[in-house]
Amino acid sequence: MLRCCIAAENRKLRRALIWAVFLLLPLLAGVYGTVNYLQNLEILTPGWYNLWTQHTLFYSLFFFAPMTALYTAYLWRLEHLGHNWNLIMTVPVPRFDLYLGKFLVAWKMVLLTQLWVFALFVLFGKLWVGLPGWPPAEILFWAVRGTLGGAAVIALHLVISMLIRSFAAPILLALAGGVLGAYFANENLGLFWPYALMMSGMNSNRAEDLLDGRMGPFLLACLVWTLLAFAAGWLLLNRRDVRSE
Amino acid sequence: MQNVIETQGLCKTYGNHFAVQQLDLAVPEGCVYGFIGPNGAGKSTTMKMLLGLIAPSAGKVLLLGKEMNPRNRLALLRQTGSLIESPSGYGHLTGQENLEIVAGLKGVDHREIDRVLEVVHLTDARHRKLRQYSLGMRQRLGIAQALLGSPKLLILDEPTNGLDPAGIQEMRSLIGEMPARCGTTVLISSHLLGEMEQLVQQVGILNQGKLLFQGPLAQLQQHSRGDVLLRLLYPQRGLQWMADNGIRCRRENDTLVLPPMEEDALAQLVQALAARGAGVVGVATRTRSLEEIFLRLTEGKEVA
Questions:
Q1: What number is the average pLDDT over the span A183-187?
Q2: Using an 8 Å Cβ cutoff, are B63 and B41 in contact?
């Protein structure tokens, strides 16, 4: 039944406008990051690592969390509009499977986003900056690792956007969460703030691995935040009366 | 005959307000049941409780002989099609894609889509986006969604809302043939009794969360026999005779208005009045439309 739910969510995303955002925002962040890199060559050690710091500085601070929130808000907006709560709650699938279906599809989108960010990073690095060789595989690993922090934020925002019918408010919340995330990460409190997990996961604005030797606590924090949000989602879906408008 | 829907003491309260109060619905198998009541009577709330969308404050719901509870929910929903409040759907997708989503979630073969599109006459519009559909088309797509999987029970909340007269007629014939064609039992709500008159066999009338009447439509129609009007050349003589014989009546100009009575009694009465020289020149019975009965019921008046 989870399979049906995933298929349904994928169908709903056909021709959805958020794909435009998916393509454009990382592009914007990539252009900004590359320009920044080229302008600060006097103070940066040239190379792939520092291009990554510049690419992710702006992206992880202002785009990553809001984009994740946008995906989850969009997935629920589809149900908030047009009385669709009545529809999805009367089809014979377990309620939590609907939530899990949305979670997995949003996570897939976040993964694709990160791969797109990485692809742009390589593309700009080779063609625009003209860096020699290929980026270290480690950086690809960081990009993908960011999606683990992303999972926690997705799970959380699926609950928030399920409750808040507004489309914009959760995205603004994520923007604030992301900016605060930089502070939490700097104060070494990143594990206690899900938005910071995204940043430290993708090693934003760092040339050396932020999580070197601390992968265990990072993974545990991602898991705990995700499971907490799952529990909240399960309770809300099973205990609350359905409101369709 | 088994009841496909049964509720026992069903209640829903919001704060101190009873949205639905001690409801005992009984919808027999294979009928079209009209669930009638003014807006805000609690029809949608009841239907949502039937489907497990909202939890009852008290009482229970039995669908197809089984209690609607978290354990039976999926099994019961698999045999139920519904359209609640307004038709659902995703505006940026086509009619076909919308049905694919529902069919997928219901675990129904995608070939069923062709069939239900045919039934609701949307085959030609299947590749148009839902947001370009008229309200009538959306209602029909909503019915198509409900029909996917050939459910044993259809729960339709005001499916004729917003339709033009031709659309209403079409919807009525579509729903009316469901029991015979597919063995489906249909619960359909409306705020207009007249609209349901040609469609339903069973009626439940709901007002302010309470069931005022439940039973066969024919039984309700018995209430429609109205007052008897006698036009007399000499109404004073007639009035005198009535008083002598202890029959209550009211005079309106040259007409005496009597309460409803059996036809035998009426014939005898006319004969007696004529013999008395009252000059009977007109006998008429005022029939009450179902709409009037409905209004009398919902306004708390007694049905004479």
A1: 84
A2: no
Question: Considering CB atoms only, which of A4, A14, A242 is closest to B97?
Answer: A14
Chain B residues touching A83 at Cβ < 8 A = 84-88
The architecture of the domain spanning B3-221 is 3-Layer(aba) Sandwich (3.40)
Q: Which CATH number fits domain B222-298: 1.10.3470, 3.30.70, 3.30.300, 3.30.530?
A: 3.30.70
Question: Does the beta carbon of B180 lie under 8 angstroms from any beta carbon of chain A?
Answer: no
Q: What is the mean pLDDT of the segment spanning A99-113? A: 97
How much is the average pLDDT of A180-207? Answer: 87
CB atoms within 10 A of CB A5: 25
Is 70 exceeded by the pLDDT of residue B301?
Answer: no
pTM of the model: 0.88
Q: Tell me the pLDDT tens digit for each residue of B134-180.
A: 988 999 999 999 999 999 999 999 998 878 888 888 888 889 988 98
Could you tell me how many helices (H) and strands (E) chain B has, helices first? 12, 15
> A241 to chain B: nearest residue by CA?
B54
CA–CA dist B62, B76 (Å, integer): 10
At B29 the three-state DSSP class reads coil
Does the pLDDT value for residue A87 go beyond 80?
A: yes
Domain housing A204:
2-239
Rounded to 5 degrees, φ, ψ at A213 are 80, 0
Of B52, B77, B85, the CB nearest to A83: B85
Exposed/middle/buried for B100, CB within 10 Å: 0-12, 13-18, 19+? middle
Q: Which of B98, B54, B276, B81 is nearest to B185 (CA)?
A: B81
Task: Find out whether B103 and B109 touch, Cβ atoms under 8 Å.
Answer: yes
Residue A244 is assigned to a structural domain of this protein: no
- Is the per-residue pLDDT at B300 higher than 70? no
CA dist., res. B292 & res. B304, Å (int): 12
